[in-house]
Amino acid sequence: MSQLVQPALSVVVPVYNEQGNVVPLCTEICAVMTAIGRPFEVVFVNDGSSDATLAQLREFGASEPRLRILDLDGNFGEAGALSAGFQAVRGDLVITLDGDGQNDPHDIPRLLERIEGDTQCRVVSGWRQERQEGMMLRVLPSRIANWLIATVSGLPTHDNGCGLKIYRRAVVQDAAVPRGWNRFLPALFGVTAAEVAEVPVNDRRRQHGESHYGFNRTLIVMRDLLALRFIMADPRRAEPAWRAVVLAAVVAVLIGLLLSWAVVWVSAVVGIVGLLIWRNLQRYNAARERGVFRVRREYTSEDQG
């Protein structure tokens, strides 16, 4: 792809085993972005797909110079794939969509209008108000998780799981998000409540393949939320502090065996919670130090010729 044209807008799409979805989605994104009338790039991040996702993207990319394909060296999860895309983009505004086609690219202009109409706004998030999924297994757990995330993070967002978002590049350019922590964006990037906005968006049914998420995601969110406030504040200082809490709980359990079972149970609960928080602080700090992805190769239209 020619490096002479600097894109004003960058679209990042993480994909894992989305054959059948990637070409229609890329076609749709390019049509919408072309109609906007500004230079753009579309960055698909192949997160270790084992199906024909990469082959289909490369075939499509042979005739689409605005498409870049980052092929990761393994499966790093959506958070790692997003981090790779964030670090690779060149546009001042960065748009993200899920790779399953359920986010509607035609909503992009409305999110774009919102962020460009407010200089204080650093992130605009889509809000899927009419979900096209089962209530008990997907929608209800998602609402519970969103309420918990909003409560802990202090960001009044209703749909943290919506992949359709727009960021100012300065917000995401140094991203290194641990696996599973994409649910906590943009709180992890230091965005305040006054700097985030929501726009209602369309939610579409998946046309091909199966969802990669299930009910257990809510349980994982609840586990990881324990550490979120400490990560938002000062994760490096919090890590040794919570290690000390865990060690103190272990000592208290041993002492409690000689004194009282009540002391044992209370100390054990404190120790388990502390261990979960300490472990996530370790993961986050390690991600910042070592990175969360490896790129095997980047493909552009010039590579297909």
Could you explain the architecture of this structure?
The chain is α/β, with parallel strands linked by helices. It folds into two domains: 223 residues, Spore Coat Polysaccharide Biosynthesis Protein SpsA, Chain A, CATH 3.90.550; 63 residues. It has ten helices and eight strands. The protein has an eight-stranded mixed β-sheet with strand order 7-5-6-4-1-2-3-8, sandwiched between helices. Helix 7 packs across helix 9. The radius of gyration is 21 Å and the shape is elongated. The chain starts with 8 loop residues before the first strand and ends with a helix.
CATH fold-level topology of the largest domain: Spore Coat Polysaccharide Biosynthesis Protein SpsA, Chain A
Q: What is the CATH-assigned architecture of the largest domain?
A: Alpha-Beta Complex
Q: Tell me the name of the CATH homologous superfamily of the largest domain.
A: Spore Coat Polysaccharide Biosynthesis Protein SpsA, Chain A
Based on CA atoms alone, the radius of gyration comes out at: 21 Å
Report mean pLDDT, rounded to a whole number. 91
Shape: elongated
Unreliably modeled segments? none
Topology as H/E string? Answer: EHEHEHEHEHEHEHHHEH
Tell me the fraction of residues in β-strands, as a range. 5-15%
Helix count equals: 10
* Number of discrete domains: 2
**Biggest sheet strand line-up:** 7-5-6-4-1-2-3-8
Top-tier CATH class of the largest domain: Alpha Beta
Structural class by sheet pairing and helices: alpha/beta
Q: Percent range for helical residues?
A: 40-55%
Head-to-tail CA distance between termini: 11 Å
Q: How many strand units?
A: 8
Largest sheet: 8 strands, mixed
